[in-house]
Specification:
Elements lengths: L3 H11 L4 H5 L3 H19 L8 H16 L2 H21 L1 H21 L6 H13 L3 H14 L4 H13 L3 H13 L6 H5 L4 H4 L4 H6 L15 H4 L10 H13 L5 H12 L2
Helix pairs in contact: 1-4, 3-4, 7-8, 8-9, 9-10, 15-16
Amino acid sequence: MKNKKVAASLAFFFGIWGVHRFYLGQRFLGVLYFLMFFFGMAILFDGEDVPIVAIPAILGFIDFVLFMAMPQEDFDERYNKKRLQQVRRQHTTSRSDYRRSERRAHTYTSRSTYTEHEPTQRDYKKWGVEKFREYDFEGAIEDFDRALQLKYEDSATHFNLACCHSILEDAKKSFYHLDQAVSFGFNQLDKVHSHDALSFLRTQPDFEDFVRNGYRKLQELPSPKRNLLESEPPVQEASNDLLDQIKRLSELRDKGILTEEEFVQQKKRILHT
């Protein structure tokens, strides 16, 4: 994965030779910067008073400014998207399948060999991290889910799950676990904007709203099975009156809390009681 700060530093200090372009995988541009430098030096030594050698230096400085001003998600989309696709393809190859099955066999062996007790929440977290490093993201999710069953309020486990689901391009689950991580005290928010595994999540249109909302999900609609009328504060008029209840349902629908389908379901339930 390419790092925006590294690319900016290379552009600032070594941009005259195009080193930052080689770092970003843009070999043609890197060679072009390099040739421009030596072409300018050759003219300078010949006594020509033409500052051509300054052109690649100026271009390198411009690249430095652009990298520093570029949002992290734009940088990832432009320079890391191909690498993320390669990681996902690697995850689906037969070699990955073999390594995954071998890793699982080793995990089960290690569980029986090194633990004389039932696996703990820490054990599942450790195995999940190991599988993540081996690109076995589905296996990592299984272990992290088991860890949550033992200690659901662990913020680090939720963050790890958000990373796994982001790599597998499941934005809904990734947002959910990132929301849970923050709600349980995860405070390393810089990782949300810089962690390579969350590059896909940062490209989603809902990401900016998620950040503006304090790194929390926007409030979802309540389940239609829930009796929404019981959760509303009591009104002064008689709540048993059918017209009042339907009116309150209409207000919930107008506020966007109820969908049209949920409004119809609740209305039928009231009329049939």
